[in-house]
């Protein structure tokens, strides 16, 4: 038995160490808030044996809006198969089922790539050069929602495209892949784009070679498979409405969603790995193209076209970044497979050893929390508050923080519907939400705008995240502080979530206790994000709520002293405001 040795490690042990490390990084805690509305929708579909025609979870989406926007039916129906799989996994093993599904999907991705790279002609040992970097990329994009299926199906799609170009009998699987993908996630549009690029390339090549009387039978068969694959994408509950949804004007709130920001914007915010992945993948591909041209590799032009398309996607939004390395890795392998054969064995072993050590170190020492030693969910979800609501049988419409809307749907439906959630169905509802969460004091029917809106919707309860993911406190907390109608009934000590109600005969929760815990959370945010101007304003506001104005002023003054640029920013304006009070 031939052995690949890193030092003196047999290939089997190297494989075991890699797989163990990969599975370990995939056991990170569940942190994607979108999971919960997908679970709730999957549960609704499972229980009703049908797809929702209207939004069953919120009370702010009017029927007229559902008919006006393509986005709404796509969100309600477009993920149905993926949502059933997610909910079925939860039924089978609770949150362990979700973790196991995640491991299975990402393992299938690596398996497809392994089979593909072997068919290209790479040795088993050489595949580690692709598998280890891709394992790192996938570990950075762990999201427990239908989009993780798109990572798998995009890989399957491109693999089937390449099979179709070599053997039309095997390429017919492309039709099945596209049909399933179109019923799981709207990312099937990516597959349609890949097919269209290859189809156009093959058509131009066929026209160019016609003068040389090349056999067209293979081209015609491939074209039939491509065409059928594009057609079956319309066999889903919303047809091709996903295209129309993409053509709708980009909502204003999209620019506040992290995954829609470009890698360059993410870099400016301190998140460096998306841009690193794009630049590293581009460098590797360009290098591979140079080697491929030297070795007269086939279809270099096609590979470049696919790369440029994926690069444009990756630079457009952070959520598309993983597709660049994931789908260009096999293209790189096609271009450099001959070079791998000629590569010095000692150098190859050394490089592979470094890659393995780096990945194992990343798996062991990174700050990813694993469910093997932590709860399944992070501390952002208000389980204790939800238990308080259920124990006291609270009913009625609620106004809620946007970031926990999906979780409230999952835990409180059907007894309680939410005001807004992570699905972002209608932009008008988000605009109304912003007026309330900001505590707008503009006059509306003789009341402050925030209060008038709540009254208009007949809202009886407010569930607020006291601090958002950036450590910022919503201004609505300031408006509620001295309001006579709204009373603080509960403060979730774990998640920092607050429950306000009116007309409920339950003893009020001591506000000073809530503010003390909010201050502790804000100070911890400051220690990790000291350069964030908003966190200092949040700390000052909490001190003001506690009646400690001098300490509030001192916080802002110290912040401006340490960061002089704050003087012309929000902290400087707030300091002027505090000093005038």
* Chain-averaged pLDDT: 89
**What is the straight-line distance between the termini?**
81 Å
CATH class category label of the domain at 379-509:
Alpha Beta
CATH topology title of the domain at 379-509 = Rossmann fold
Q: Tell me, briefly, the overall form.
A: globular
How many strands?
6
Helix content: 55-70%
Could you say which structural class the secondary elements and strand pairing correspond to? mainly alpha
Strand order of the largest sheet: 1-4-6-5
Work out the strand percent.
under 5%
CATH architecture of the domain at 379-509, by name, is 3-Layer(aba) Sandwich
Low-confidence stretches: 1-8
Cα radius of gyration in angstroms = 27 Å
- Count of helical regions: 26
Biggest pleated sheet: 4 strands, mixed
At a glance:
The protein contains 26 helices and six strands. Helices cover 63% and strands 4% of the residues.
How do the helices and strands line up, and which of them pair or pack?
Blueprint: H1 11-25, H2 34-48, H3 63-68, H4 71-77, H5 80-120, H6 124-140, H7 147-166, H8 168-171, H9 173-182, H10 188-209, H11 217-232, H12 241-247, H13 263-268, H14 273-294, H15 300-316, H16 323-342, H17 345-365, H18 383-391, E1 397-400, H19 405-412, H20 427-437, E2 443-444, E3 447-448, H21 449-456, E4 459-465, H22 476-481, E5 487-491, E6 497-501, H23 511-528, H24 533-545, H25 549-562, H26 570-580
Parallel strand pairs: 1-4
Antiparallel strand pairs: 2-3, 4-6, 5-6
Helix pairs in contact: 1-6, 1-17, 2-5, 2-19, 5-6, 5-7, 5-16, 6-16, 6-17, 7-9, 7-10, 9-11, 10-11, 14-15, 14-16, 15-16, 20-21, 23-24, 24-25, 25-26
């Amino acid at each position: 038995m031939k052995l690949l040795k890193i030092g003196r490690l047999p290939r089997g042990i190297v494989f075991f160490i890699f797989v163990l490390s990969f599975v370990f990084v995939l056991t990170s805690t569940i942190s994607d808030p979108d999971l919960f509305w997908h679970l709730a929708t999957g549960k609704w579909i499972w229980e009703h044996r049908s797809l929702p025609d209207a939004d069953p979870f919120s009370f702010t989406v009017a029927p007229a809006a559902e008919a006006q926007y393509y986005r709404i039916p796509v969100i309600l129906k477009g993920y149905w198969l993926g949502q059933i799989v997610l909910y079925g996994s939860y039924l089978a093993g609770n949150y362990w089922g979700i973790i196991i599904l995640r491991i299975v999907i990402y393992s299938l991705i690596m398996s497809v790539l392994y089979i593909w790279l072997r068919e290209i002609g790479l040795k088993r040992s050489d595949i580690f050069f692709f598998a280890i970097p891709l394992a790192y990329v996938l570990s950075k994009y762990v999201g427990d929602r239908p989009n993780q299926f798109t990572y798998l199906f995009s890989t399957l799609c491109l693999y089937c495209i390449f099979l179709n170009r070599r053997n039309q009998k095997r390429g017919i699987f492309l039709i099945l892949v596209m049909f399933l993908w179109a019923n799981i996630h709207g990312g099937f549009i990516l597959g349609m784009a890949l097919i269209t690029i290859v189809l156009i390339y093959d058509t131009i090549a066929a026209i160019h070679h016609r003068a040389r009387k090349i056999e067209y039978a293979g081209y015609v068969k491939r074209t039939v498979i491509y065409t059928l694959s594009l057609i079956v994408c319309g066999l889903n509950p919303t047809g091709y409405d996903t295209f129309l949804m993409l053509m709708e004007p980009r909502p204003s709130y999209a620019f506040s969603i992290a995954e829609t920001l470009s890698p360059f914007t993410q870099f400016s915010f301190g998140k460096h790995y998306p841009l690193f992945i794009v630049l590293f993948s581009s460098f590797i591909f360009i290098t591979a193209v140079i080697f491929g041209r030297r070795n007269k590799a086939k279809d270099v032009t096609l590979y470049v076209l696919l790369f440029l398309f994926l690069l444009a996607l990756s630079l457009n939004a952070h959520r598309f970044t993983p597709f660049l390395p994931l789908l260009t890795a096999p293209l790189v392998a096609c271009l450099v497979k001959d070079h791998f054969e000629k590569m010095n064995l000692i150098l190859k072993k050394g490089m592979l050893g470094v890659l393995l050590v780096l990945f194992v170190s990343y798996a062991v020492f990174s700050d990813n929390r694993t469910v093997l030693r932590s709860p399944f969910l992070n501390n952002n979800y208000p389980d204790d508050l939800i238990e308080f609501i259920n124990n006291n049988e609270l009913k009625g419409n609620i106004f809620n923080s946007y970031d926990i809307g999906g979780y409230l749907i999952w835990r409180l439906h059907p007894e309680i519907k939410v005001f807004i959630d992570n699905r972002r169905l209608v932009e008008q509802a988000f605009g109304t939400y912003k007026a309330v969460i900001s505590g707008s004091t503009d006059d509306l029917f003789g009341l402050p705008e925030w209060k008038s809106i709540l009254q208009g919707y007949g809202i009886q309860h407010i569930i607020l995240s006291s601090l958002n993911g950036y450590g910022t406190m919503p201004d609505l907390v300031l408006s509620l502080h001295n309001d006579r109608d709204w009373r603080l009934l509960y403060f979730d000590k774990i998640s920092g979530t607050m429950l306000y109600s009116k007309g409920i005969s339950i003893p009020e929760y001591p506000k000073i206790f809530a503010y003390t815990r909010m201050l502790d959370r804000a100070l911890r945010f400051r220690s990790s994000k000291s350069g964030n101007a908003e966190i200092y304003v949040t700390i000052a506001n909490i001190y003001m709520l506690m009646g400690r104005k001098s300490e509030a002023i001192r916080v802002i003054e110290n912040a401006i002293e340490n960061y002089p640029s704050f003087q012309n920013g929000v902290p400087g304006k707030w300091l002027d405001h505090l000093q005038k009070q």
